[in-house]
Amino acid sequence: MVVWIWKEELGDLMTVEQWRAICENDVAFDGQFFYAVSSTRIFCRPSCKSRTPKFENVEVFLDAADAIAAGYRPCKRCKSGGERLPDVEWVAQVEAFVREHYREHLTLSRIADGCHGSAYHLHRVFKAQTGMTPLDFVHVVRIREACVLLETTEMRVMEIGAAVGMPNAAQFATLFKRTQGVTPSGYRKTWKGLDGDEDGVL
């Protein structure tokens, strides 16, 4: 007897066996169905070694074409679309992932897992395509967002650091000065038309 799980959030059905196959990366179910993850907009084979998704974020498709038609992209790791995703498209996915999650604690492994690839391959491909490492890009996004907050809010520098994913105030101030040539407080004063300073963290 087939036991179905009703997924109310998606108005969808998934069998207990399908969910078990996803959780256990069961290769025996490859070719029988694909599963898509709404939080990443990526679809995978059941055997994919990516992190097990949240149950409520999963949607099941019988073939890859249906998943693509629903707006999902093939997984880089398990090649769920049948062909290797072009590097330029994967890098765009990585950049989008970082922009969405830069406030969180991001490591190379975390980014690779979120984008369904290996850390080694991610580092190599991303640097070849952009000239910087994935973690360099994380820093670029964080500093860019920090500049916006310095320009538009009265938040303290240490609060801004935490807001962009860098709770260590000294580390944030050091990175900011290295990339912008001025401390966060100096940047804010310059932006407001005041004399900049060389103070540390306010």
From TrEMBL:
SMART domains for this protein: HTH_ARAC
Pfam families: Ada_Zn_binding, HTH_18
Cofactor: Zn(2+)
Ranges of residues in domain HTH araC/xylS-type: 92-190
UniProt feature coiled coil, ranges: none
InterPro entries: Ada-like_dom_sf, Ada_DNA_repair_Zn-bd, Homeodomain-like_sf, HTH_AraC, HTH_AraC-typ_CS, Me-P-triester_DNA_alkyl-Trfase
Transmembrane segments: none
Keywords: Activator, DNA damage, DNA repair, DNA-binding, Metal-binding, Methyltransferase, Transcription, Transcription regulation, Transferase, Zinc
GO molecular function: DNA-binding transcription factor activity; methyltransferase activity; sequence-specific DNA binding; zinc ion binding
Lineage top rank: taxon: Bacteria
Protein's GO biological process: DNA repair; methylation
Name of the protein this chain belongs to: HTH araC/xylS-type domain-containing protein
Organism from which the protein derives: Listeria weihenstephanensis
